[in-house]
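Letters spell out the chain; backbone shape is given numerically. Both lines appear below:
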Amino acid sequence: MKIGQLAARANLNPSAIRYYEKQGLLPRPQRQGNQRRYPPEALNRILLIRFASAMGFTLTEIKLFLSGIKENSSPVPRWRKLAQRKLSELAVSMRRTRRLQSLLTHLLDCRCTSLEICVQRLTLSPNLRSLQEISRQRSAKKASPAQGLV
């Protein structure tokens, strides 16, 4: 199918399909004349890319996952590693969200007479210290590339 047809079925712009191709998420299609011709399976791959992206996976992670998929082969081992890592990230994010919610709830009840006093109280808050620690952990993880998925 032509790129326009694939784009319409995937509810994307053709430029997004070309971008996925350029990033190595989609294999280069055959060409007839100077036009791309995609096999029907390309739609499934694009839908998987979009689903994984909507679930918070980065394009790099999606590429690592897809690079291990061959026709009629099981992606399960690679998917499990990726899922385990994402579950860990999600747990950290959920802890951070709960602490942030608690902190914001307390801030709504703030009766401080000045910003200076409020900041002093916040720096003593265990919620703030927890948020800072989680933020440092996230920064450290982002600095290291995706590991253990190859």
